[in-house]
Amino acid sequence: MTADDATLDDRATEFADTLTALTRGVLGEDSPQFSAHNAGNRIRVAPLAADKRSMRIPVKIDGERCLNLHVQHLCCWDGTKKYLATDKADVHVFFEGESDPLLRFEYVRNSKNPPGAHLQVHAHRDEMAYLLRLADKKKGRPAAQLRKGKLPRLSEMHLPVGGHRLRPALEDVLLLLEREFAIDVAPGWRDVLDEHLRTWRVLQLKAAVRDAHEEAAATLREIGYKVEAGPDVEPQRTDQRLYWP
Q1: 115-125, pLDDT tens digit by residue?
Q2: Which of 8, 26, 87, 218 has its CA 20 to 30 A from that of 42?
């Protein structure tokens, strides 16, 4: 393992510790610990069993295990080789005892179509299935499924959720579950969640600023800061992930 790989391991381990602190601070100390496993060119961050299989995180309502979370991140370097990046992330919400998820919050770093950050809802509405079948006339993705003899499903729709830089995080999903399903939470959970959410949003803001540093500098000047570009600052590019779907 090279020195760079070791640094990537260290940063992924720090990220795993952050996720452990978040889930235990919100759901309780019995939530499984996240760990980082080097899988070659990427590092898998998830609650891992001894055989390295991902473990689901139990979520209780009135003391009864009603939901489970599958949370996994595949981490790598960003384009500058300076910052930890997520190559792929999954946050899936399951009803206890069911193999088909209710909700799938997913992120794929190199995807534009479907959008890199998306939500898939596992439910059924006749009206939505009808609309998807109409796409057959446009020769879209549902049409390919029909040619294979499969009816379109609502869960196949990739609903955009803010793009690559403004996407929701695990914190948002936990807040959703508490707000909508009144899940059991640990004492002081909201302070823990708010602190982690603020950290996440600032990290994403910094990434967005690196993508659009000229606009960021102009905005700072508008509110009174003095900002000058150094001699080694490269021109802003138009193909950064901030602008991707």
Answers
A1: 999 999 999 88
A2: 26
Nearest to 234 by CA among 10, 81, 80, 62: 80
**3-class state of residue 64 by DSSP:** strand
The alpha-carbon radius of gyration of the chain (Å, integer) is: 20
User: In 3-state terms, what secondary structure has residue 236?
Assistant: coil
Q: How far apart are CA 186 and CA 81, in angstroms?
A: 37
pLDDT (0 to 100) of residue 2: 47
Structure token digits, residue 197: 């959410």
pLDDT in tens, 126-139: 777 777 777 655 65
Residues in the chain: 245
Nearest to 161 by CA among 151, 172, 150: 172
Phi, psi of 140 (to 5 degrees): -90, -165
Q: CB neighbours of 83 closer than 8 A, spacing ≥ 6?
A: 77, 207
Per-residue pLDDT tens for 211-243? 999 999 999 999 999 999 999 999 999 999 999
CA distance 105 to 161: 9
Alpha helices, H only, 36-125: none
